[in-house]
Amino acid sequence: MYTGIALPLLLGGCLVMLFGSEVTTSATLKPGPYFSLDGSGHLASFTVYAPQPGRKIAIPNDTKSEVWSLRPVSGRGDMVSGMNIRYGRVPDGYLQTVPHNGTAPVLVPGVVYHFFAETTGAPGAEGYFYMDKDTPILVDVPDLCASAFVGDVKPVRCGSGQPYVEPKNLEKFVQEHRVQN
């Protein structure tokens, strides 16, 4: 038997689901490169990783591979909805943590980088991009995982722990694994 309070509780729950839910962060890449973010979270940090010497593809979460990183000066950061971050330019309200001094290094064409937008209040966004002159191309790198989150991070095949073998022909790999942006 329904009481007079059941319907308002049900409707209230539906409204919370419709209007109070978090929206996963998404990223679109543009020449520059620019990272256009969207979602319902706040940007807690943004990091770009480069491949280690002798490699063609960056390993996620490898602090030795960080080439540029930023975080809010205070608080939880700005809303990601409509946020545009240009590589190497620190947005107002943020400070650069990597490199500690100077400017971000130039992104070298012909290799695959990794980015991670850490957010609070909603899941973040991450991905790989290949630099083709000044144009980033979003790519999927299947089976590449990091062996650890901190310390001596190595590239491994996801689920097996076996070493990850990079493709011999990176340009062909990028064409085959390009993600529509």
Textual characterization of the structure:
By secondary structure, the chain is mainly β. It has one domain. It is built from 2 helices and 11 strands, in the order αβββββββββββα. The strands form 3 sheets. A 6-stranded antiparallel beta sheet has the order 6-4-3-7-8-9, with no helix packed on it. The protein is globular, with a radius of gyration of 20 Å. The N terminus is likely disordered.
Task: Output the keywords.
2 helices, mainly beta, 181 residues, 11 strands, 3-stranded antiparallel sheet
Catalogue the unreliable spans: 1-19
Quick one: overall form?
Answer: globular
Beta-strand proportion:
25-35%
Number of domains: 1
Oligomer: single chain
User: Strands of the largest sheet, in order across it?
Assistant: 6-4-3-7-8-9
Kindly report how far apart the N and C termini lie: 51 Å
What structural class do helix, strand and pairing data support? mainly beta
Mean pLDDT: 87
Biggest sheet record: 6 strands, antiparallel
Number of strands: 11
Spell out the helices and strands N to C. Answer: HEEEEEEEEEEEH
Q: Please bin the fraction of helical residues.
A: 10-25%
Annotation field: number of helices: 2
Radius of gyration equals: 20 Å
